[in-house]
Amino acid sequence: MGAFASTEEFRAVMDRVFGLMRDDPEMGPRLRAADVPQRHEYADLGLVVNIRAGRPDEDHHLVWEWSDDVDWTPRVEMAMDSEIANRYFQGKENIAVAIARRRIRTAGDLRAALALVPLTKPVHARYRDILAAEYPHLVA
Description:
The chain is of the alpha+beta class. It has six helices and five strands. A five-stranded mixed β-sheet has the order 3-2-1-4-5. A hairpin with a 4-residue loop joins strand 1 (38-42) and strand 2. 23% of the residues are buried.
């Protein structure tokens, strides 16, 4: 498996993944209802993204900012390399195993984070389809 070609490519791909989850008629409402604000750090790329559920006055189920300058506090923090994120969204990286092996470092409410895993499972096949069609160098 190859690496992301650039930080910009990683952001573009992850924006699509988050958009898929936000807009999915099943995943989106479930993630919104779970309401688990998160902070993900991708140290190998020098990136951070903060993700939260949409608020009652917002149309979107998920909102994310590629910044720490947000008006919410994460309940869960995860730090991982971009390769681990890529493998996870393909359904090829088990979060619990990755945490146990320190491929993902966590802080905060780990139980809440693990409860989201089954909610996001439907995105895996769609993500693999995107990679196969547009980013074959990322297929694990």
